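A quick aside before the break. I want you to see a complete sequence-to-structure record at least once, exactly as it would be stored in a machine-readable document. Don't worry about memorizing anything.
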Amino acid sequence: MPTQTSIALFRFWLPWYWHVWIFHAWLRAVAPLSLRYKVALGKRLGRVLCPLFRGKCSTVRRNLEVCFPELSAGERDALCRRHYESVGIGLTELATSWFGVPERLRETVRIEGREHLEEALEKGKGVLFFCGHFTPMELIHAVMRPLCPRVAAMYRPMRNELLDRIILRGRSRHIDELFSKYSVKTLLRRLSGNSVVFYLADQSSRDKYSAPVQFFGLPAMTNTAVSRILRISGATLLPLYFRRLEDESGYLATIDPPLPDLPSDDPVADTTRLMQALEDRIRACPEQYTWMHRRFKDLPDGYTDIYS
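That is the input. The structure line, written in tokens, reads:
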């Protein structure tokens, strides 16, 4: 009789997993390449693959249209093409993070503001890295790992079980604990142990603590729980941004100081300030932000659906 393990392994060889195995093999093949070759390969990949996903393509164009109305149609088209290239580069960066040599990656990164992290860790109440969904963000865990005594991050399981296992294994190279995005208790425990937790709250959310928050001048459903988390835990929130350099020769990680008077008694106002800070960083390199997400969906009745 086959064991449970052999049944599980056999299941992953069924036809609906084959494309994941091909992707896995491609990542392993790309991982040893130099940064220059990965960038060149990623750009070409983005130009070919992204336009094939028409639904995502229309979402990108609509997001850019409402977020950058000051740009002409031609300028937005150019930004859209650069975004596709950035997404393609992001795929090669998955290979770097999950299968590459971390030391080689860190040689290409300049970190600014590490003193803010050191000061926050000295308080002993944990650090919440507030990040945005930029296309190279998968690298940030490997970059920041040597500066952090213990690292944790929230995770949303994938529907494809094989892909989910590959992602978990890849991220676990640099993260001590991955836990459900809905497990606030685990988050608070990790902060109480002075862990550094990566926290991303810049995607559409309709949970208990969500509210319409201004983002690029438009209301966007956003989780406002970060204010309550900080008030309960006493942790320090540090905005963390990670982007490719303009000449594509490396990366810049920027740790900003804590926002003054955060948290306050108004979670929506706190979240609005964080979104404004994120927006400012996005405007510095808009092609590197993840525009494929329908950021302005799921608004309550009375709001306009920009995607309809």
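Two observations worth writing down. The radius of gyration is 20 Å. Residues 1-7 have pLDDT under 50 and may be disordered. We'll return to this after the break.
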